[in-house]
Amino acid sequence: MVTPTSGQQEMLDQLTTEPGANHSWQINLAGKVVAITGANQGIGLGLAEVCLDNAADTIYSLDIKEPGTDFTALQERHKNLKYIQTDVTQKSSIQEAILAIYSAEGRLDGFVANAGMTKHQPALNFDEEQLHQIFELNASFHSFSFESKVFGTYHCATAIAQTWIDRGIKGSIVFTASMTSYRPNRAAPSAPYGGTKAAIRNMAHTLAMEWAKHGIRVNSVSPGFVRTAMTTYMEGSPDWELKMKYYGGMPRLARPQELGGAYVYLLSDAATYTTGIDIPVAGVVGAW
């Protein structure tokens, strides 16, 4: 058997979706640059922390809002946490952010499409404008705010995939879906929110199928109840303990960082044959 030279092996590695000869099987993000949308706070910021604690070279938050004190505090510990103001509902804004990352770092290995907000209320209480704020390109700020979930996620995925295909890069995309993509959230119902998250989870499967030949992996993670600015009110509701008793599973909200292990795995080189799946991280609560 003829052993290829290092130059030949490098060329072979670029032509196949299989891992190369010097592939690392460690579940960490050593040397990787990852972009996370909506990472100035909440789940996204928790994911950034876990990625950085697992040796990520640089994490970029792509967020429309300016960073707050929580972001600054994490940046004090991790100087390689950076921010680019980005409107994820506008594909041109995402493309500009991607080009800025390549200009600064020379690479972008992973992309987490995480940004999103909602309002929990009965279906009959949503008016037409509110529905459009979820399903269409609308990220306006009123008394509450929706970021475009389906369109924003789609724009993020297609923008980074086109960049990777053009450059011959094998990368990993991870969507943040939700336990409500499987079944209704009885504690805090929101039919439009669940509908968008189900669409995102299905989109991950379909894009994974389309882009597998390029070595681009697409997966999703479905969180359960997570403690963020949008959910802390739930713990203060009078019937919270009763709801948790009959939901089963872990009777508490998760810390955002508790989701991070699933994302680190999916972004890592240990997951080179993992694509088109969803990982529920829901403490059993409401996931199945």
TrEMBL record:
One of its GO terms (molecular function) is oxidoreductase activity, acting on the CH-OH group of donors, NAD or NADP as acceptor. Belongs to the short-chain dehydrogenases/reductases (SDR) family. It comes from Heterodermia speciosa. SUPFAM superfamilies: NAD(P)-binding Rossmann-fold domains. Keywords: NADP, Oxidoreductase. InterPro entries: NAD(P)-bd_dom_sf, SDR_fam. This is NAD(P)-binding protein. Pfam families: adh_short_C2. It comes from the Eukaryota. Gene3D superfamilies: NAD(P)-binding Rossmann-like Domain. The lineage of its organism: Eukaryota, Fungi, Dikarya, Ascomycota, Pezizomycotina. Transmembrane segments: none annotated.
